[in-house]
Structures are given as C-alpha cells and as structure tokens.
C-alpha cells in the first residue's frame, strides 16, 4: 500500500499498487466487519452498489473467505437500483448476482432485490416499506440518534462525475431527507429510472467503504479529498458517515491526481 502521509491518517484513504491488492484488502476488511456484526447482533447488513465495485469483491468468493465468512447471516441490500427487470443487462441485481452472489452461499431470502414489476416511485416506496419491516424483526438496526436505519456496511462506488448511489451532483434528490429510499426518473446516466438510498440513510451507516480504481476516477478522487464543497454538490464527498467509519480504497490510477 502506498503512503500519502497525512492524507492516510486524516482521510482514511488507502492506496494500493493495483486492483488485485485493493481487492485482497477489501475482502479482509469486509470479512472482519462481518465477523464482528454477526458476533454482536447475529446479522450483517451489507449494502451493494452496482458498477465497477462488484468485480473488486471477487476475493471474497475465494478461499479462505469463501469458507470462513458466516454467509448465512448476511443480509444484502442495494444502495441504488435501475428500474429494469432483474435479468436486464442494466440491472445492478444481475451484475451482483453474476459477479458475486451466485458464488457465495448467502440464503436467497436474505437478498433484498427491488420489486421489478413496479414504477420507479412504486419500487422506491416498496423498498422502503421492506426495510421498515426488517427493522421490526430486529434484523436491521435503527440509529440511536435519528430516524434512519443504520446498516453495518455500505459498499460504494463513485462515477467519473462524482455521483454515488443514484445521487448525482447538484440533482434535487441530494437534499431529500423525508424518505429512506427515493426514486429518480431523469438520471443523467442511463437508464433514467432508478431508486436510491437518500443521503441521510447513507450518512447513518456504521461503515462506508468507497472503492475507486482506474485513472478515469482520478480527477474526482482528488476533488473528494480537496476543499469541502456545499452539501450535495459532490455526492461522493457528502456521503460520509456522521457517526461511523469511512475508508476509501483506491488503486494508484485513481489516486494519481492527489
Ligand atoms: O450507475 C451507477 O454508477 C455508480 C458508479 O459506477 P462505476 O462503474 O463508475 O463504478 C455505481 O456505484 C452505482 O451503483 C450505479 O448504479
């Protein structure tokens, strides 16, 4: 891992020589969080993004993690989803299933995909309702300090424009506070119809791991670690836990403009 001195310490940025090293470290960090959540609460609530993140989870599907992680107690959610059928090439569920979920023994009833028969608004409301039911069962924790759920881990990617989840720079959705899950029908990145966790839910997470690899992300990584911008102008900068832990995992390419 390369050293960025003060940046490492203050901003929790971990820079790796290549994606292979990044993926190894990511797997170890995820496995440790999983073990402590299952020990404490008997469940690990982990939230996936789509995009390039999924490939970096590959090491978790291999020994030793394949055999040592308590997959039976994982509960898997999506921080955002495109409103398409589950077998559509744009589906974040399909991407995660093909690249990760089909390779590890997580019980299918603990994988919470969106209802792909509904409109964007319907799917967002339905997903939020489902989360509230899981709070009632005790699987999903609520925060002590606000009225949002507190997921154990959010695994986040960042687009080259600085968006995360389906929260795009300066889009009005970045200011939504009254919902846990919101819909968008004018996403600047296709497909236009999506659902997304709102920023307060993201900020309430116990842990957020952001993953960025490749030079295409370098400019935005530098911006995220640059001056503090007004809330929502750069969602990947605003998406920081208010009472949790944030780690950025970057390869040398993504960190090349720091
Ligand atoms: O559209 C999306 O893009 C972001 C970033 O994707 P990447 O391929 O540039 O890493 C992703 O995190 C999000 O889940 C997805 O819906």
TrEMBL record:
Reactions that this protein is recorded to catalyse: 6-phospho-D-glucono-1,5-lactone + H2O = 6-phospho-D-gluconate + H(+)
Cite the annotated pathway: Carbohydrate degradation; pentose phosphate pathway
InterPro entries this protein is in? 6-phosphogluconolactonase_DevB (IPR005900), 6PGL (IPR039104), Glc/Gal-6P_isomerase (IPR006148), NagB/RpiA_transferase-like (IPR037171)
Which Pfam family is one of this chain's hits?
Glucosamine_iso
Q: Where is each Glucosamine/galactosamine-6-phosphate isomerase domain found?
A: 19-248
- Enumerate the Gene3D superfamilies for this protein: 3.40.50.1360
Q: What is its EC number?
A: 3.1.1.31
Q: Which domain of life is it from?
A: Eukaryota
Q: Which family does it belong to?
A: Belongs to the glucosamine/galactosamine-6-phosphate isomerase family. 6-phosphogluconolactonase subfamily.
Supply the name of the protein. Probable 6-phosphogluconolactonase
| The organism of origin for this protein | Sphagnum jensenii
């Amino acid at each position: 891992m390369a050293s960025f001195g003060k940046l490492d310490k203050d901003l929790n940025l971990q820079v790796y020589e290549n994606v292979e090293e990044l993926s190894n470290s990511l797997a170890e960090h995820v496995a440790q969080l999983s073990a402590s959540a299952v020990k404490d609460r008997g469940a690990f609530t982990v939230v996936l993004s789509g995009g390039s993140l999924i490939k970096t989870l590959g090491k978790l599907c291999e020994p030793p993690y394949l055999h040592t992680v308590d997959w039976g107690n994982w509960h898997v959610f999506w921080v955002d989803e495109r409103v398409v059928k589950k077998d559509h090439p744009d589906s974040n569920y399909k991407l995660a299933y093909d690249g990760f979920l089909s390779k590890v023994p997580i019980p299918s009833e603990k994988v919470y995909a969106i209802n792909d028969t509904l409109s964007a608004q319907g799917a967002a409301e339905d997903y939020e309702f489902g989360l509230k039911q899981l709070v009632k069962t005790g699987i999903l924790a609520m925060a002590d300090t606000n009225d949002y759920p507190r997921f154990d881990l959010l695994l986040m990617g960042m687009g080259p424009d600085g968006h995360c989840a389906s929260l795009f720079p300066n889009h009005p959705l970045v200011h939504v506070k009254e919902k846990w899950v919101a819909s968008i029908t004018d996403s600047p990145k296709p497909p236009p119809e999506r659902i997304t966790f709102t920023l307060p839910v993201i900020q309430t997470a116990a842990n957020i791991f952001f993953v960025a690899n490749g030079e295409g992300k370098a400019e935005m990584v530098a911006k995220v670690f640059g001056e503090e911008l007004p809330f929502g102008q750069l969602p990947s900068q605003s998406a920081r836990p208010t009472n949790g832990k944030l780690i950025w995992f970057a390869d040398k390419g993504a960190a090349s403009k720091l």
